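Lab notebook, bench 4. We co-purified these components, and the gel suggests they stay together. Before we commit to crystallization screens, I want a quick structural picture of the whole thing.
Request: model the full complex, all chains together.
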Amino acid sequence: MLRFEQLRHRYGERTVLDVGDLRIEDGAQMLLLGPSGSGKSSLLHIAAGLLRPTEGRVWLDDMELTGMHGAALDRVRGRRVGIVFQRLHLIPSLSVLDNVLVAQYSAGNKVDAGVAMETLDRLGMSAKAKAKPSSLSLGEAQRVAIARTVVNRPRLILADEPTSSLDDANAEQVLRLLCEQAQGATLLIATHDARAKAVIPQQVILKAAAQQVVA
Amino acid sequence: MNLLTLAAADLRHRPLPNFLHLVLLGLGIAMITALLLISTQISGRLQRDANGVDLVLGAKGSPLQLILSTVYHLDIPTGNIPLDEANHWASNPMIAEAIPLSLGDNARGFRIVGTTPALLKHYGARFAQGQVWDAPMQTVVGSEVAQSGFVNGATFIGMHGLGASGHAHADHQYRVVGVLAPTGTVLDRLILTSLDSVWEVHGAHHHDADEHDDDDHAEDHAASGDGAANYNAAKEITAMLMTYRTPLAAASLPRMINTQSKLQAAVPAMETARLLNLLGLGFDTLRALAAVLIVAAALSVFVALYTAMETRQYDLAVLRSLGVSRGRVVALLWIQALSLSIAGTLIGLLLGHGAVEAMGRVAGTGRNVSLTGLTLQADELAILLLPLLVGTLAALLPAWRAYRSDVAATLSQS
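Here is the predicted assembly.
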C-alpha cells in the first residue's frame, strides 16, 4: 500500500503539487494523469524516495519513506521500488544482461544471472542478452528497461511517461507488459498519453491549476 | 557484478581517451623510474669503486680527472709520477695502505692496469678461476672482461692508449692466469697485471723505438696520458691509491702533498660529490620535467572524469534510483580514477625499467658504468604511492559533484 498524508511540494514560492491525502491499495494498477506541470514526475519521485516533499508524509506499507534517510532509504528503494523512466538510459557500457544484473547488485540482492535471464526471457529479450543497448530498437530497449525494473520483484513499480516516444502498437505492448510483469505489485504510471486509458482504466488525475486530486 | 566490473566496463567503453591518459601518465612515471634507476646505479657504483680510497696521489692537473681515471677508470690520467716520490708519501705514518697503479694500455677496450695484489684485497675480490700473477705478463681479468673472451689461459696483446685504436704492442704477449668472480666494482672491467709487466712493455717499447719512432707514436702516449716521462728509465707509475691510518690525516696530508711536492693529492669523496652534484643538475631538470608530465596526467584523468560526469550524470542518477548509495557512486568514480592511475604507473614502471635495460645493453658492458633495468630500488615504493595520490586528487571534484547531485532533478531534466 502506498499512502500520502497531506502531501504538498513547492519549488520556492511556487506550489507544484498538492495531493492532500491519497491511498493506493496493494496490487492496484493506476494511471497518474494530468497536463504538463501538474506534478506527475514529482509525485513519482516522492513515492520513490528520490525527492523529499516540502510537507506531508509518505508511507510504503508500514515504512514511512519521509522519515528515512541515506543508505536506509536507498536500500528500500532498491529492494521495494522499481522505476521505468521516460528516457530509458540503459547503461551503454554494459550488455543487456548486465543492465539487468546491475539492478540486482544495486539493490544489494544476490546477483543471479539465472533470474535475470528468466526475466529477460519473459519479455522476449533473452536472445539479445549479450547485445549492447546501442544495438537495440526503442521497443527492445523499453523491454530491457522493464526487465531491469521488475527483476527484484519490487512491491511498487513507478513508470514515468513510458510510452511517450513509442508508436501505437509498441505503446500498447509496453503497457500490457508492464501490467503483466507488475502482477502482485502496485503499479503507478505517470502519463499524459490518452492511449493508456484503454489498457489501464483506474486513474488518478492531477489538475495543474487547482492541484486538486480526483481519484 | 560489482563496482570493479562497473568501473572496468565504463573504462573499456571509452578506449581512446583512456589510452591517452595511460600514455601520458606512463611517460611521466617511466621518466622518473629511469632517472631513479640511473642515478642510484651510478652513485652506488661510484661509491663502491671509491670505497676505502681516502686519497689519490697523481700528477698535477684536474683532481676530478685524476679520480675519474684512477678510481673509476673513465677518463685519461693526468700524467705519470716517479715511483720513488710516491713511495715516499706512502711511507708516511698517517697512511695505512698504498696501492700503486700504472695505466696506459688496453686490450679490446678493457684497461690494462699494472698494480699489486693489494688492489684485489682492497675490493675483496675472489677468484672464479686461476690465481694471482706471479711473473710479468701474467694477468688477472675481471668478470665482465672474461665474458668478452679473455678466458683463463687465453693470450692477448695490449694496445697503447686507453681507447681501442692505439698502437699494438705486438711483441709482448699477455696471458690470463686468473679470472675474478663478479665484485660489482670497477675490477669487473679491468685487466690486472703486475707493475713489472707495464714497465717491461713500455721500457722495451721505448728501447725499440727505432722500429716506430714517428709522430703518431708520441701522440699515442700523449693521448694515453702517460706522457713523455714514461720513456725515462726511472720507474714511474700513474697514481697511488691511499687509505688513511687516522682521520686526522684528512686535515693535513692532502694540503701537505699539494704544497710541498710536485704531485697532486685528490680526495675521491670530494670529487665524487662534485661529480654527483654536476650530474644532479641534469637529473633535477629531468625530474622536474617528469613531475610536470605527472601533473599533466593527473589533470588529464581529472578532466576525463569530470567531462564523463556530464555525459554520465543520468547513468549515475539511474544507479542511485536503483538503490546504489551515494558512497558507492563516489567509490565507483574513485575506483575508475585509481584504475587508470595504477595501470599508468605499472606501464610507466615497465617502460622505465625497459628503457634503462635497453640503454645498458646498447651501451654495452665493460667499458663504462654498466646499467641494468632488471633491478628494483627501494625508492620505487614511493612511485607506487603516486597512483593513489593522482587517482584520489583526480577523482575528488567529480566524486564530490556526484555525491551532491540531486537525483530527482537530474532525472527530471533528461
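The interface with chain B takes residues 41-42, 45, 48, 50-51, 70-71, 74-75, 77-79, 83, 85-87, 89, 91-94, 98, 101-108, 111, 148, 160 of chain A (CB under 8 Å). Worth comparing against the SEC data before the next meeting. Helices of chain A lie at 40-47, 70-80, 96-106, 113-122, 138-150, 168-181.
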